[in-house]
Design a protein that fits this description.
With about 120 residues, this protein is mostly helical. It has four helices and no strands. The longest helix is centred in the C-terminal third of the chain and has 13 residues. One of its GO terms (molecular function) is microtubule binding.
Length: about 120
Amino acid sequence: MPFEGVTNYSSDFKKWNVPRTLGKPRPEAIQQSGKFEGLSTAKQHFITHSGAHPAKSCKPDNRAFLSDSMLDDKTTYRVSYIPKSMRYVERYPTPDWLKQQEEIWRKTGMMPKPPRGMTPE
């Protein structure tokens, strides 16, 4: 069956005529019967009581804590640290595959030559 080049989208999903509405119709506004005296429902029913204060916040003040005592900055690591000499560190030989790769990098200019005194003797 050859390809016709026509899709079935237009036949499956037809455009429906939907009337456009601009929201719900609003009810008629309430007609005021008298003059507004500046007294709202909240002012009428929620009366402030004298002597009532807001509770003190439990949140700590946003300031640094100052102490007269010295800071003991000793940690377990600092106390138990023993400096060791680097004189007797065992150096392992460079693997052949890495030597070959470094040589390729040097030839292509991707790796500069190491500075003198940095390679193990």
